[in-house]
UniProtKB/TrEMBL annotation:
Residues 329-348 are annotated as: Disordered. It comes from the Bacteria. Residues 34-245 form the Metallo-beta-lactamase domain. The chain crosses the membrane at residues 302-320. This is MBL fold metallo-hydrolase. Keywords: Hydrolase, Membrane, Transmembrane, Transmembrane helix. One of its GO terms (molecular function) is hydrolase activity. PANTHER family: METALLO-BETA-LACTAMASE DOMAIN-CONTAINING, METALLO-BETA-LACTAMASE DOMAIN-CONTAINING PROTEIN.
């Protein structure tokens, strides 16, 4: 336990980072219990913006409120970009896309899961690593359906509404997974191609223990492709990586851990056994075509214990979130409409781990920039 405490003291964690966090100029992360989604502005201080990923089911109101706190009342994106369509990244997608009436962009190989045509390959609880993995058989895996709002990302690698960004094909975790990269300052939104917490472990997820890990094992359905994707992202030498799970990382720690992950992917990221080893799920632009047969789960006796622990954890998180939301609503009322301009909200103080000392005015946009 003291190792954990040392680690938590040394790196940002759930207790020391706000739920809505500045990542890089024009990029903010919102932590939705255990998954992240992102607000990305076309230019750092002004202009249109897009949402990247759409959080857990039921998160639409919270996402809209966060958007309004950043961009003002009634804020509406130009589009929603999807790294992939797992339930924790697309849970509020249908509601938000309909409410804002905006297009939803994803890779052509990911569209079947966003247009109701195919369910994902089944999750694999046999990969081990903790309660989040053991319970993965219970996670929703039905496709979402945003109908004709779903559109394929441009084949030339450009990103709609974000001229400074490129999308990078990073399959493996899902068949059509993509990351988004801004080359000018090395900012990477990696989705679940790799993540910055040990997503299989409920304890690590609760703490948001910050370290580079491979894609969440229980959902990854092609490990060869996942390895090549991590190698591709490591070659980009990102300076900031904000991933689907965990707190954004930057600088030397990021580069070193990502490089090591790419070099030792087999030992660090690939489970010793699992349904998608050695053979992957097979998918195409119509969805899943074939999956390997299920394997025996030696951890079944632990499942009920894990379930009880996780339900308890979930209730704890929910109660804390409810409390936070109530406090935040009170703050919104005090500082509306642009409460983030007000240092009294506490965000500016909380942002410390990502605040460069030489940046006049800090990372948050000042009133003059909104
Ligand atoms: Zn995922
Ligand atoms: Zn995820």
């Amino acid at each position: 336990m003291s190792d954990h405490l040392d680690h938590l003291r040394a790196r940002p964690n759930r207790a020391t980072t706000p739920e809505l966090q500045f990542v890089a100029p024009g990029v903010w992360a919102l932590r939705n219990i255990f998954v992240n989604l992102f607000f990305v502005r076309q230019t750092p201080n002004a202009g249109p913006w897009v949402l990247v990923d759409a959080g857990l089911p039921g998160a639409a109101g919270r996402i809209r409120r966060a958007a309004e706190s950043l961009f003002g009342p009634g804020a509406r994106p130009e589009a929603i970009l999807m790294t992939h369509g797992h339930f924790d990244h697309a849970g509020a997608l249908e509601t938000l896309a309909a409410h804002w009436d905006v297009p939803v962009y994803a890779h052509p190989l990911e569209l079947p899961y966003l247009t109701g045509r195919s369910a994902y390959p089944p999750p694999d609880p046999t990969v081990g690593g903790g309660a989040m993995a053991w319970l993965s058989g219970l996670y929703p895996k039905h496709p979402y359906d945003v109908g004709s709002r779903a559109q394929a990302l441009p084949a030339d690698g450009t990103v709609p509404e974000l001229p400074d960004w490129r999308w990078i094909f990073t399959p493996g975790h899902t068949p059509g997974h993509v990351a988004f990269f801004r080359e000018s300052d090395g900012v990477l939104l990696a989705g679940d191609a790799f993540v910055t917490t040990q997503q299989e472990s409920a304890l690590a997820v609760w703490e948001q223990r910050q370290e580079v890990h491979g894609p969440p094992k229980y959902f990854t359905c092609d490990w060869d492709a996942a390895r090549r994707s991590v190698e591709r992202l490591a070659r980009l030498q990102p300076r900031v990586a904000a991933t689907g799970h965990g707190i954004a990382m930057r600088g030397q720690a990021l580069l070193q851990e990502l490089t090591e992950l790419a070099q030792h992917f087999q030992e660090r990221a690939v489970p010793a056994r699992g349904r998608y080893l050695p053979d992957p799920a097979i998918a195409d632009e119509t969805g899943v075509r074939a999956v390997p047969p299920p394997v025996h789960n030696p951890r079944t006796p632990w499942l009920l214990g894990g379930l009880a622990a996780t339900v308890g954890l979930g209730i704890g998180i929910w109660l804390q979130q409810r409390d936070t939301v109530r406090k935040r609503r009170r703050r919104y009322r005090r500082h509306s409409p642009h409460h983030l301009d007000q240092p009294a909200t506490g965000y500016a103080a909380d942002i410390d781990p990502f605040t460069p000392v030489d940046e006049p005015g800090g990372w948050f946009p000042g009133p003059q920039n909104l």
